[in-house]
Amino acid sequence: MTYPSISKTPNLAFEFALLALLSLLWGASYGLIKLAVETITPVTLVAVRVSIAAGVLWLVVIARRRKIPTGFPIWRQLTIQALFGFIVPFTMITWGQQYVESGLAGILNSTTPIFVFLITLFWTRHERVNLENSLGVLAGLGGVSLLIGMEALAGIGTHIAGQLAITGATISYAIAMIYGKRFKGIAPEVTAACTLTLAAIILLPASFAVERPLDLAPSWTSIWALIALAVFSTAGAFTLYFRLVNTLGSVGTSSVSYARAGISVMIGVLLLGETFNWQIAAGLGAVMIGVAAINGQFFSLFARTRRA
């Protein structure tokens, strides 16, 4: 396998701001899925989610007059990306969250950087991995566990099928992050529109094959949650995602798994009046160290601080 390299040095402050925004959009998806799946079955939910998101993105692509990729090889690659980036993980997470508490689901899904790191280290070797990356992966995972609460780990061992489904989705995300580097020559919104469309083409018939979507009577709460999930946590988020994969790289972008946990906790503290304690402070610190180290910035920031 060959992977294109990142050709220009990104503005890290701006890219980290986009990473934080992506964290917010994806962090919100857990609660939205919980609301939507109450009255909408899992495969139907995912099928409609990607269909709405694809439609929104095609409007953006047409308005911006973006070039659409042509040729069988690139569309075969886009299909593989759709499989690992949308079809498999969306379905598995949506199904698994019916049986797994959101806290444990958050911890399991935050292990994406570990799998990206391991796949990069032992298989693809498409990006540089080193001691700093390794420490970042461990620090970030520890921070997420502190933020969510170690008591969430008490659920491990119950509803094993649901936990395996969410873990499988995490591995699928890791593969997609690495594979997504090959679409550097395509505008991010075009890549997202194409892959989401391919996912919709596969998932819409599948929803009729395994469920009865026309017999559903979804609540307005579930409908609005689905719309928000599609427009913001899917269409908007995956446009940012495909950009970041080719600026921060797949290992760097995987740190979003840690950052979104930190952002969701801070939203609870700042907007919902939730308690800020030493455990949250330690978790946020560990997450910040993890994100910086995974992106190769922690040692340099530490050195600059000592010189100041």
Characterise this structure.
With 308 residues, the chain is mainly alpha-helical. It has one domain (12-307). It has helices at residues 12-36, 42-63, 72-96, 102-109, 112-124, 131-148, 160-179, 188-210, 220-245, 249-254, 256-271, 278-294, 298-307. Helix 4 (102-109) packs parallel to helix 7 (160-179). It is globular. The N and C termini lie far apart (44 Å). The model is unreliable at 1-7 and 301-308 (pLDDT under 50).
Chart the SSEs and their pairings.
Blueprint: H1 12-36, H2 42-63, H3 72-96, H4 102-109, H5 112-124, H6 131-148, H7 160-179, H8 188-210, H9 220-245, H10 249-254, H11 256-271, H12 278-294, H13 298-307
The tally of helices reads 13
- Give the number of domains: 1
Shape: globular
Range of strand content: under 5%
Q: Topology as H/E string? A: HHHHHHHHHHHHH
Count of DSSP strands: 0
Gap between N and C termini? 44 Å
**Structural class by secondary-structure content:** mainly alpha
Oligomer: single chain
How much helix, percentage-wise, in residues?
over 70%
Major sheet: none
Low-confidence stretches: 1-7, 301-308
Radius of gyration: 19 Å
Mean pLDDT over the residues: 82
Name the descriptors.
308 residues, mainly alpha, globular
Question: What's the quick description here?
Answer:
This protein has 308 residues and is an all-alpha fold. It has helices at 12-36, 42-63, 72-96, 102-109, 112-124, 131-148, 160-179, 188-210, 220-245, 249-254, 256-271, 278-294, 298-307.
